Amino acid sequence: MSIRLLLADDQPLMRAGFRMILEETDDIDIVGEARDGVEAVRLAGELNPDVILMDVRMPGVDGIEATRRIVAAGGTARILILTTFDLDEYAFAALRAGASGFVVKDVPLDELARAIRAVASGDAVVSPRITRRLLDIYAAKLPDLSDRGTSGPARTALDQLTPREQEVLLEVATGLSNPEIAEKLVVSEATVKTHVGSILAKLGLRSRVHAVIFAYDTGLVR
Questions:
Q1: SS3 label, residue 8
Q2: What distance in Å separates the CA atoms of residue 217 and residue 221, rounded to the nearest whole number?
Q3: Judging by beta carbons within 10 Å of its beta carbon (0-12, 13-18, 19+), is residue 129 exposed, middle or buried?
Q4: Fewer Cβ neighbours under 10 Å: the N or C end of the chain?
Q5: Do 164 and 192 belong to one domain?
Q6: Which pLDDT value is given to residue 40?
Q7: In sequence order, which residues have a C-beta less than 8 Å from that of residue 57 and are 6 or more positions away?
Q8: pTM higher than 0.90, yes or no?
Q9: Tell me, what CATH number does 114's domain have?
Q10: What burial class does residue 208 get, using C-beta atoms within 10 Å of its C-beta: 0-12 exposed, 13-18 middle, 19+ buried?
Q11: Which tens digit of pLDDT belongs to each residue from 42-101?
Q12: Residues 6 or more apart from 47 whose CB is under 8 A from it?
């Protein structure tokens, strides 16, 4: 079954380039193109794509705000952010808004296609290495919840998790991959994947990247 993809970029040449290379794949079907964030939001509702390849910087409504609006409207499309640098603060803001990952614009075709397939299947496209670097740089900009710890709604959300799931969430938040978590906790990788899926479902999160952000926002990790 083909992945329905919506392209969102204000540069016609960039959209044409992505269309040209992605049409070479057998399992990705480009269903529409958006010239800005407003059009991306509209087409996301009309076309119901599986994945949106979204430029983070567009005039008017940018990729961050478009992502926020699509998520707020209950859109099920996974959003893959296009950025110029792998540690772009705008890209990180888009992850917080609900995007499932990001790729740099000069990514090779095979990596781009793999990223699209990954977010379509529910995975996040931010490697553990990048996760660690993101947190090193931006953790200080997250809300300081140390004065109240994990209380109120945050504590209630965490209480939905079993002790083992909380343990796995803690390891995810430090940037460990599933194999690394499996080795550390002495369980199978399949077990870790099951726990991660359960964590996302219970907390209503879109990807493991959002689990990392949740852990920092709630003060579970600082």
A1: strand
A2: 8
A3: exposed
A4: N
A5: yes
A6: 96
A7: 63, 83, 84, 90
A8: no
A9: 3.40.50.2300
A10: buried
A11: 999 999 999 999 998 898 899 999 999 999 998 889 999 888 866 667 777 888 888 888
A12: 4, 6, 31, 32
Domain check: are 9 and 104 in the same one? yes
Which two structure tokens, joined as six digits, stand for 191? 């077990």
Residues 83 and 52 in one domain: yes
Residue 61: predicted pLDDT: 93
Taking alpha carbons only, the member of 88, 84, 85, 75 closest to residue 40 is 75
Domain membership flag for residue 24: yes
Residue 172 lies in a domain: yes
Q: Are residues 40 and 147 in the same domain?
A: no
Does residue 222 lie in a domain region? no
Q: Tens digit of pLDDT for each residue in 115-163?
A: 898 888 776 666 555 555 665 655 555 444 344 344 456 567 788 899 9
122 and 159 housed in the same domain: no
Q: How many CA atoms lie within 13 A of 180 on its CB side?
A: 11
Q: Which residue has the higher pLDDT, 142 or 12?
A: 12
19 & 98 share domain:
yes
Q: CA–CA separation, 26 vs 24, rounded Å? A: 7
Are 145 and 88 members of one domain? Answer: no
Domain of 199, in residue numbers: 140-217
